[in-house]
Amino acid sequence: MKDMQENAGIKLFALNSNQELAEKIAEEMGVELCDASVKHFSDGEIQININESVRGDDVFIIQSISDPVNENFMELMVMMDALRRASAGSINAVIPYYGYARADRKARSREPITAKLIANFISLAGADRVVTLDLHAGQLQGFFNIPVDHLLAIYTQAHYFKESGIADDVVVVAPDHNSVKLARNLAELLKAPIAIVDKRDAARVDEADIIGDVKGHKCIVFDDLIDTGGKMVDAATALYAAGATKIYACATHPIFSGNVVKELEASAYDEVIVTDTIAISEEKQFDKLRVLSVAPIFAKAISLIYHNQSVDALFDKSDSI
Q1: Which residues are recorded as binding D-ribose 5-phosphate (predicted)?
Q2: What is the pTM of this model?
Q3: Mean pLDDT in residue range 151-158
């Protein structure tokens, strides 16, 4: 990591979605978060004041587009407009969780492609670059006409499993067919086989729905996010019935909607491993939860971008795990 002197010219701002992650990133980089205030009027309108000069500076704004999604997104838009009007040298939107990413195509007639609309807004508001992590679909990078640095949490996750001894005699499980590529990528890092939950009947799930050998093995159910948690809980039920010895859930983005926390706590999972791309409120914490920080990934990426260096080093598997 660059020392404080080398990173001294970076202007790092944090909005309201994930202050804790922003503070960790700043600490990793050896810089202070810049002074700005984000206020909301009684009718919900957003007021942002930047309390120091940014003229000609390279500015990085940290904001996840997470719940409340529209409010956090508008904060990002207003902040970028303020920076553009304040003559910032470059505006870099650091978006640990890119909301609306699941609306990336028309699945039905007369349906919007909201992920593309969000990309348009970010560009129009003045962003010169987007830095994000584990997009729901990698092709979303093509929705932008500006550079996108798409970072990955998988090396941090694989390192955790190896350091914890979980990677020994383990099977990586895709909770549905859409997650097979993700599961295969983790399995390659852990040198493990994969299995797939092939759920055909919406009303039931059991060991017959597992493609692959999991009996007597530890299992990691791997996906990019946990929202309502239905398929993750179903996967745990099927794996337990199929004779798995220990079962772990792993995902990058902990959206945690509805009753998912209670369901995960009551499930067959031994641990639920997520990252801190989305701030997890106190009421959504539970005993099985383990949170890995992605602050080092973003800190390294921001420093490399600022110094006009390649971010390829972040994808060096031997260095990461």
Answers
A1: 223
A2: 0.92
A3: 96
Rounded Cα distance, 321 and 161, in Å: 10
First to last CA, the chain: 17
Q: Which domains does the chain have, with CATH numbers?
A: 11-152+295-320 (3.40.50.2020), 154-292 (3.40.50.2020)
pLDDT of residue 2: 45
Residue 305 and residue 9: Cα distance in Å, rounded?
A: 12
d(CA 306, CA 90): 10
Cα distances (Å, whole numbers) of residue 52 to 8, 11, 33, 49, 88:
15, 10, 11, 9, 11
Please check if 176 is assigned to a binding site: yes
Report which DSSP code applies to 177.
Answer: G
Q: Is 199 marked active-site?
A: yes
Stretch among 181-190, 194-203, 212-221, 252-261 having the lowest mean pLDDT: 194-203
| Nearest alpha-carbon partner for 147 in 128, 132, 133 | 128
DSSP 8-class letter at 129: E
Of 24, 199, 218, 231, the catalytic one is 199
Looking at residue 214, its amino acid is V
